[in-house]
Amino acid sequence: LLPSAFCERPGSTVASRVVISAWLLVAALLLGLLLQASVLWLIVIWAGIQALIHNYYLWQIARHLPIGSSDPLDLRLGLTMTAQKFSQSITSTLPAIAVAWFFAFEQVAHFSIALYLLTFAVSLSFAAMSVFLPLFFAVDAKRDSWRRVCLANIFVGLIMALLFAAGTKLLFQPLYGSAYLTSLEIIWWLLPTVTFFPLKAYVGHFLTASGYNISQIIVNIFGHLVGIILLAVWHDKMSFVPLMAWYYFILILGPLLPLVW
Questions:
Q1: Residue 196 contacts residue 252 (beta carbons within 8 Å)
Q2: What is the mean pLDDT of residues 32-52?
Q3: Which of 6, 16, 213, 261 could bridge to 80 as Cys pair (CB 3.0-4.6 Å)?
Q4: What is the pTM (predicted TM-score) of this model?
Q5: Angle 197-209/105-137 helices, nearest 10 degrees?
Q6: For the packed helices 181-194 and 240-260, what is the interaxial angle rounded to 10 degrees?
Q7: What is the DSSP letter of 73?
Q8: Which ranges constitute the DSSP H helices of the chain?
Q9: pLDDT at 223 over 70
C-alpha cells in the first residue's frame, strides 16, 4: 500500500487514506495480540476491519457518481477478475499443500520455510513494481516497446534476486540455524525465479487492465495442474530438492511464458 502513495500527487488525500487504512489494520491486530485474543478473534478483527475499509471506499466512489446514474454493474467482469486474482494468489499457498500430499512432515516444513521467504520476495517485488506501473502502462502497443518493458522488469528482478541472495546469506542461519539447511538449499535452487517476479507482476496487472482475465485463469490453473502431475509422477524417483525446484519453476515460468508471448 505504501508504494501506491508515491503514485499519487503530493498531499493527496487518497494516498493518506490508503496509508492510514493499512496502519489501522496492523494496529488492531497488534492490539488483539496484546490482549491474547484467540486465532478466531484475530480473523474476525481482520475480516471486520477489511469489510469496513472496503465499504468506506465503496461509499466514496458512490458519492462521486453522477446523481441518477444507472449504469449496470458488470457482474461478469467482477467475477472473472476475482477468479483471476485467486488463481494467481494460490501460488503462495497451494504448493505447500500439494507437497504435503506426497512427502513427510519434515520435508514439507523445509519447503514451507523456503516458500515463505520466496513469497516475501514476491510481495516486495509487487510493491516495488507498483511505483513504476504508471510509467509502464504508458507504453504503446509496438513490439519493441513491449520488449523494452519486459527487459526492464527482468533487470529490476535481477537486482532484487541479488539483494535477496545477499539477505539470505547474511540472515538465514542466524534466524533458522543449521537444522533447516535443506530449506536454504531449496532457496538457492529457486533463486533464479526471483528474477521473473517483477515481470510476472507487471504482466498480470497489464493483462488484467486489458481484459485478459480468462487467459490468465487458464494458464494459472494449467501451471498448477502440470506441477501436481510432476509431483505425482516423480516424488519417489527424484531427489527432494531438485524436484521442488522443477515444481516451482513450472508454477512461475509455466504461466508467465505464454502470457508474455
A1: yes
A2: 87
A3: 213
A4: 0.71
A5: 60
A6: 20
A7: P
A8: 2-6, 13-34, 39-63, 75-89, 94-102, 105-137, 143-176, 181-194, 197-209, 213-234, 240-260
A9: yes
Position 250 scores a pLDDT of 93
3-state secondary structure of 261: coil
Is there a contact between 99 and 231 (Cβ–Cβ < 8 Å)? yes
**CA 112 to CA 135: how far, in whole Å?**
35
Closest Cα to residue 228, out of 83, 99, 90, 91? 99
Q: How confident is the model at residue 138 (pLDDT cuts 50, 70, 90)?
A: low
Query: Distance (Å, rounded) from C-alpha 250 to C-alpha 256?
Result: 9
Long-range Cβ contacts of 81-86 (<8 Å, 24+ apart): 81/208, 81/213, 83/213, 83/217, 84/208, 84/213, 84/214, 84/216, 84/217, 84/220
* CA–CA dist 139, 196 (Å, integer): 20
Query: 3-class SS at 227?
Result: helix
Which cell is 187 given? 532457496
Candidates 235, 106, 116; CA nearest to 179 is 106
CA dist., res. 220 & res. 243, Å (int): 20
Q: Is the pLDDT of residue 83 over 80?
A: yes
Give the CA angle between residues 75, 208, 148 to the nearest 5°.
165
